[in-house]
Design a protein that fits this description.
Blueprint (H helix, E strand, L loop, with lengths): L1 H10 L1 H8 L2 H18 L20 H4 L13 H35 L2 H16 L9 H17 L8
Helix pairs in contact: 3-5, 5-6, 5-7, 6-7
Keywords: Membrane, Transmembrane, Transmembrane helix
Amino acid sequence: MAAVGIALGYAFRTRIIDFVGIRGELNVRFALWDSVQSLTGLHPLEGFGWVGTWRPELAPFFAIGTVNGRTPTSALNAFLDTWFQAGLVGLALFSVLLGLALVRAWFVASSRRSVTHVWPALVLVVLALTSMAESTVLVEYCWFLLVVCAVKAAQELSWRRGLR
């Protein structure tokens, strides 16, 4: 059933985009992603250095400039933003952090069967999905939320319990 929904969504994607009225926003995102990807080729492994929210007066962020009249403060994609700032090494570490936290939280939620233990898994799923459209998971409260959920999942499912 989900596969049919995905196939229909893909087949009618242009009509859906026009109906929702997000063509302009998609054009801004695609232009920004294209310019960021062209710059990541200069330092693919190590990136340009971590600054969090972009500062347009610093290099390489001033090279991106304005995109369709907007001055971007992030890549509008956490994974692309991490690759741009921290390189493939940082992207791998961020992906491992998010994936490991999600898997551990999911195991805890499925074994404990309590609403309290489900929240970290649900929050991590939302953060992972939001990361594809925004970079907020890399700064401020979302970063804090990611770390808290990862620590809580690690605390509940610790490897140290096997040492007893």
